Amino acid sequence: xxxxxxxxxxxxxxxxxxxxxxxxxxxxxxxxxxxxxxxxxxxxxxxxxxxxxxxxxxxxxxxxxxxxxxxxxxxxxxxxxxxxxxxxxxxxxxxxxxxxxxxxxxxxxxxxxxxxxxxxxxxxxxxxxxxxxxxxxxxxxxxxxxxxxxxxxxxxxxxxxxxxxxxxxxxxxxxxxxxxxxxxxxxxxxxxxxxxxxxxxxxxxxxxxxxxxxxxxxxxxxxxxxxxxxxxxxxxxxxxxxxxxxxxxxxxxxxxxxxxxxxxxxxxxxxxxxxxxxxxxxxxxxxxxxxxxxxxxxxxxxxxxxxxxxxxxxxxxxxxxxxxxxxxxxxxxxxxxxxxxxxxxxxxxxxxxxxxxxxxxxxxxxxxxxxxxxxxxxxxxxxxx
Amino acid sequence: xxxxxxxxxxxxxxxxxxxxxxxxxxxxxxxxxxxxxxxxxxxxxxxxxxxxxxxxxxxxxxxxxxxxxxxxxxxxxxxxxxxxxxxxxxxxxxxxxxxxxxxxxxxxxxxxxxxxxxxxxxxxxxxxxxxxxxxxxxxxxxxxxxxxxxxxxxxxxxxxxxxxxxxxxxxxxxxxxxxxxxxxxxxxxxxxxxxxxxxxxxxxxxxxxxxxxxxxxxxxxxxxxxxxxxxxxxxxxxxxxxxxxxxxxxxxxxxxxxxxxxxxxxxxxxxxxxxxxxxxxxxxxxxxxxxxxxxxxxxxx
Lengths: 385, 301
Hints:
The complex is a heterodimer.
Chain A: E1 2-6, H1 8-18, E2 23-26, H2 33-45, E3 51-54, H3 58-70, E4 75-80, H4 81-96, E5 102-107, H5 121-124, E6 132-135, H6 139-154, E7 162-167, E8 176-180, H7 183-190, E9 206-207, H8 213-245, E10 253-256, E11 263-268, H9 269-284, E12 289-294, E13 296-298, H10 302-311, E14 313-318, H11 328-337, E15 345-349, H12 359-370, E16 377-379
Parallel strand pairs in A: 2-3, 2-4, 4-5, 5-7, 6-7, 11-12, 11-14, 14-15, 15-16
Antiparallel strand pairs in A: 1-8, 6-13, 10-12
Helix pairs in contact in A: 1-2, 1-6, 3-4, 6-8, 9-12, 10-11
Chain B: H1 23-35, E1 39-43, H2 47-51, E2 64-66, H3 72-85, E3 92-98, H4 100-104, H5 107-115, E4 121-126, H6 161-166, E5 172-177, H7 181-192, E6 198-203, H8 207-210, H9 217-226, E7 233-236, E8 239-242, H10 244-250, H11 260-263, H12 279-299
Parallel strand pairs in B: 1-2, 1-3, 3-4, 4-6, 5-6
Antiparallel strand pairs in B: 5-7, 7-8
Helix pairs in contact in B: 1-7, 3-5
């Protein structure tokens, strides 16, 4: 084990290379650029022994990953913002074709206007593609999640693509200490990828041809079942990784000081990490509030939301917006609780366009809700923006 | 090589869902004969997504990956990279796409794959329309042709895709026609023997799309070549070599027949002849064809 101090992008590249993918196809949309640049460096140093395809667009990056994965090899790519949006068609394709591609997405604002800071609207817009989605809040978590993602994606009861999202700049370009395990630990943990099916000249099969309504319906149902299986496997795989590496990142939610809490704050990504400071401050002031940082967005941890709703009133901060409805996490938490809990649920939009959300902002949000001054759903900090 | 000397092996299985008289299926038979079973095919949205039949059946005796409309060349890049990594570089990677998926929506991915030197064969079977989707205009549709989106006849001339491909200085490119199976076979065989990106375009006269009787498919391709509406050539190491009747036309050893002889047999050009002969547009077609051949003569010896 070695400790390095490095940025989220460099750590993601390190993790990807240690997982030994056979093919990486990538296009330089920023700020994913430093991720793919690093993989290119690993090609030069010989640490990455796979094929690296510098494609001419993100659409082609995902298409090339699809082609590679369909021949039965481990496949990785990275993207961000408009790149992810351009991939959208192929994200559906990868999931419906049941290809266990692993991809990092750096959460970044969608234009216009051009803005390179962080919000989650890029990946939230891919919610219904069938991909498993994780959101990270530290560089160590990025490393651990990328490694675990390959195991989950390739598990015979899942066989689905996995997206690991993390905030632009706040994580992608910020150096943090990260413990990197020995290569052997990663090798033992992941094992060799053995696909259940592949393009094979010895066994010629046509994949993805025309399918009638009832057949297609079954395909969709099988994807649903795979997500249900993933729910069982995510904690198991995390436990196994913890046993091997000593690190545990794999819960659906990271619970922080929730015991006996009357209020629980829910948030994703870096806001989730910043919230810990706010929780500490509020607890010092005698407020019984805990934090549930949501790290698995798909499959949705509905049951975990219900458990929280039976214990406490919930305050949800979304760094994303479904315009005309509200924050995605807020909508999903409320929908999970319906008929299952009487908890009040407050939704706040905050930090869109990469606007900084400090622990003081988070305290202000929580106190507004706790003091009964918040509407069911509102925007925080937009007046002084 | 005579047709009787082609391999008897068939990878297009009986019972495909192709239209009667389908030139793409004729082309596929020949292409598979030339490539053999050690081939993986990538197919974007096109007629072949139908020809290959409905799940769980298939018309092809080689592995096939279907992919989105614009993604054939990129998907094939991934297949090729993976095979190379696995030490299976002897397997031929074939991208098989229509003219819509090549000239229009797929041109970016194709250009990228060629520029990267991808070791694959990209074949565009060109029926000059989006036929699978219902006969809409593409960048390959000729001037004045009726389609469902050019109801009065197309107002622009088609792209010269071959020249766009040549600008990549590709190791091998060729134009062929479904009506000349021996020529197509030779060109595919040659492509298979060369490393790097290869591009072959097959003119495929489409009976329902061009509005002619299904037994006339072969005749329609022969006339396209004899009138100079389509040229047969190979392009290797920056040198183009015309062959068959196209060579004779290029060298002015024979005069090309008027394109009118070809278009008057196709319902898609009917408005140029009925109720009255549209001399202006017919002349524009002939002039444009002459200009194309003059350009060929300037560029290719």
